[in-house]
Structures are given as C-alpha cells and as structure tokens.
C-alpha cells in the first residue's frame, strides 16, 4: 500500500497561498462581502421607505377624513347654537308672559279689561292712539293729534275718571307734515284699584 504525505515540506521557506472563499483573492472577497452588505442595506431601506410612505398616505387620508368630519360637526354645532338661541328667546318671552299672568291680581281680574273698555270713551275725537302698552304698573299711550290742547283735555279726562289715576306726560314732540303741524305724545297712567 502506498502512503501519501500530506504535510508540506518545510525546507524551502515558501508558504502556500491561502485560498479565498470564492475566487482565491482576499481583497476581492472583502469587496464582495461589502457589496452584499450594501445590497442588503439598500433593500432594507427601500422596504422601510415603502412602509413609511404607505403609513404616511394612510395618515393623510385619515387626516382628510377627520377634517371633513370636523367641518360637518362645526356646521351642525352652528345650526344647533342658532336653534338654541331661538328657543331661549322664545322661552324667555313665554316665561315673561307667565310671570305677568302670575303677578296679575286674582281677586279683581276684570279691572284691567274694564279699564281698557272704558278708555275709548275718554279719548277726544282729535286724538289718534298709535300704540298702547299695558304692564303691571299701568298703561302707556302713544298717540298723535293736530291740536295740542286735546292732549291736555285727554289727560284731565283720565285723571277725573274712576278707572285711571296719576296720569303724566312722558313726552310731546312737534313735527311738520306738509303745511300741517302734528303733535306726537306719550302719556303714562295707572289703573285705579
């Protein structure tokens, strides 16, 4: 049988070149490893970039949807606010009317209606009543006349009647309408009890 000696000879001082992974040259192996590493790095960055772009697009879509929803909610809130204001005004008017009715005297409910029925008998023919305000405290009459003396006569008639007392002028205003002088006035009076 033949024996093989696999140990190199040590006498001549030469070293055997190391074989590389693929090509036998160590510099080329390093470049190849660096190239593979860069390719993996670039591929992973590309994948991460795609994921971030997808997440960014999704976030933009959600943001746009949220803006549309916010706009709808703001419009609805404005509508509800206007409706609330309208209902609040109506409620305050109803509450004021209810309070007035509660404060009206219950023992003599006909005093006010009797006084208002009696009022036209006291108004002179030269006076026009433009506005009549009735409150718990009394009656305010706004009117017009061509004769300022008729206003004094009307006020004297109110004070002399059994239905009204404490009448006084709030104001008298003179105005010219063409060639005619018109007197606008306001009288406040109280209903006698």
Number of strands: 4
Structural class: alpha+beta
Report the CATH superfamily of the largest domain: General secretion pathway protein M, EpsM
Intertermini distance: 153 Å
CATH classification, class level of the largest domain? Alpha Beta
Question: Could you characterize the architecture of this molecule?
Answer:
By secondary structure, the chain is α+β, with helices and mostly antiparallel strands. It has 2 domains: 23-103; 110-191, 2-Layer Sandwich (Gyrase A, domain 2). 54% of the residues lie in helices and 21% in strands. It is built from 3 helices and 4 strands. The protein has helices at residues 26-103, 110-122, 148-160, and strands at residues 127-134, 139-145, 164-177, 180-191. It has a 4-stranded antiparallel β-sheet with strand order 1-2-4-3. Strand 1 (127-134) and strand 2 (139-145) form a beta hairpin. The mean pLDDT is 84.
List the SSEs and their pairings.
Layout: H1 26-103, H2 110-122, E1 127-134, E2 139-145, H3 148-160, E3 164-177, E4 180-191
Antiparallel strand pairs: 1-2, 2-4, 3-4
Concise account of the structure shown:
It contains three helices and four strands. The chain has 193 residues and is an alpha+beta fold.
Search tags:
single chain; 193 residues; Gyrase A, domain 2; rod-shaped; alpha+beta; four-stranded antiparallel β-sheet; 3 helices
């Amino acid at each position: 049988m033949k024996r093989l000696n696999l140990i190199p000879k040590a006498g001549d001082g030469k070293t055997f070149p190391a074989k590389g992974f693929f090509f036998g040259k160590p510099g080329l192996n390093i470049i190849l490893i660096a190239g593979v590493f860069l390719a993996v790095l670039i591929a992973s960055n590309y994948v991460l970039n795609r994921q971030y772009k997808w997440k960014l697009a999704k976030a933009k879509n959600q943001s746009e949807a949220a803006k549309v929803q916010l706009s709808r909610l703001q419009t609805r809130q404005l509508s509800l606010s206007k409706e609330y204001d309208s209902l609040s005004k109506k409620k305050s008017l109803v509450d004021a009317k209810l309070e007035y009715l509660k404060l009206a005297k219950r023992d003599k409910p006909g005093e006010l209606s009797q006084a208002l029925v009696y009022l036209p008998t006291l108004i002179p023919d030269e006076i026009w009543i433009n506005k009549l305000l009735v409150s718990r405290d009394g009656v305010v009459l706004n009117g017009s006349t061509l004769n300022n003396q008729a206003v004094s006569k009307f006020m004297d008639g109110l004070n002399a009647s059994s239905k009204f007392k404490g009448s006084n002028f709030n104001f008298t205003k003179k105005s010219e309408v063409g060639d005619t002088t018109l007197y606008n006035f306001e009288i406040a009076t109280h209903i006698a009890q």
